[in-house]
Amino acid sequence: MKLCIIFPPLPFGWTPVAPPILEYLAALTRQADPSIEIQLISGSATPEAYKSVECDLAAISILTPTAVSGYNIADSLRARGIKVVFGGMHASAMPEEAKGHGDAVVIGEAESCWPQVLKDFRAGTLQSFYKGEQLELTGMPTPLYGMLKNNHQFRIVNTSRGCPFNCTFCSVKPFFGAKIRFRPIEDVVRDVAAIPEKMYEIGDENIWWSSETKRAIELFTALKGSPKKYMAFGSLGPVLAPEGSRMLNAARESGLLSVWVGWDAISEKSLKAYKANGKIGVDRERAVRTLKDHGIDVSLFYMLGSREDTFDDFKRAIEVADRLGVSMHPSLVVPYPGTVLSREYEPYIYPELGWEYYNGSYALFDHPDPMMTPELREEHFYISLLEQLSLPRVLRHMMKVPMAGFPYAHILSLMSQLPVRKGVKIAFEQWKANRESVRAKRQR
């Protein structure tokens, strides 16, 4: 039996981060049935590779921005007689839609049902839907790091799943649940040791939690002996907690160079509307400065163009970046299917804009201020983003990266911003070329 695992191309080109589902699902497959031949395809690196693939079963993992390209790939493979099973967040949120392009859909997490999918396929009894359970994270195999080629320079390690926060825009809680499930620390250390590169990424929703600072310190202490460096995602609340300084020192000593923080919104009004203020903490600017004081670089992710935002928020974003000495990575608001925000915004969403527009660079819903037209929101977004990713600003930020991380943190700063800069330029050109056709779709 031959299995091909496919991650469709991301909207704006290649990324140095290897899609984690590919090598991990390969490991789950090897664990379930070592006789299966496995091929991995990262669509961003090799977008045409699926056309020549020869396999019996294709597993395609889709996010909302990659759903349309994933469906197109599936339709092409099925026309050649290849069976297709879908998984991923979008397929879990929209299983009936995904089933229209595939033979089976895995809803939720794969560990509990993937062996049965493979067994049923071999027996010719593939079911339409498989419901994955939210299991404890023990016994998870190490991803087959290095199996995916094409110059992917960062592998992702996961240490937990789940999120207790109620941010309306987020898919993590609906998909992984409200309970934080941790992997055994020794398993995390084992996976880090298996990564062939010198730098990696911890891809958890949050590397530290306010209620679990002791666990975070234990993890960082266990990773301290590794020569490898990494970046991670973290909330600001725990940074100013009583154990915050000790936790940050342990994180820095474990090889943490940079943390991507959910700033989420420029204005406090929008932050409260998203119900995201619970994870931000009491003083988010002081928390950012505290991270930098501990030798950890900071990048802020946030969204623009919500129904509460104004054009002033677009302008203030640059001022925040300059004042705090951080890199900023904005997105236009995306009401992803399955989220609370999607339900809240449903009356205002432009129905003719398909999933291919859900990539963070299009205004997807009406705004109560008639001056905040979708085209102007998009234009202001690109003006702000291109200014923040201008080469002088990228280099200026690199010079502000804490010297405690030299040279790795400085290299990482460039490697995390330059591909984004390139992708933004591609997106901007696409936006200009498609502006009239998108306007026509909104007016239908």
How would you describe the overall organization of this protein?
With 444 residues, this protein is of the alpha/beta class. The protein contains 17 helices and 14 strands. It has helices spanning 20-32, 67-79, 89-93, 95-99, 114-123, 172-176, 185-194, 213-223, 244-253, 268-273, 277-280, 284-293, 311-324, 340-345, 374-388, 391-400, 408-442; strands spanning 2-7, 37-42, 57-61, 83-87, 104-107, 129-131, 155-157, 160-161, 181-182, 199-202, 229-234, 256-264, 297-304, 327-332. It has a six-stranded parallel beta sheet with strand order 2-1-3-4-5-6, sandwiched between helices. Strand 11, helix 9 (244-253) and strand 12 form a beta-alpha-beta unit. Helix 8 (213-223) runs parallel beside helix 9 (244-253). The radius of gyration is 21 Å and the shape is globular. 47% of the residues are buried.
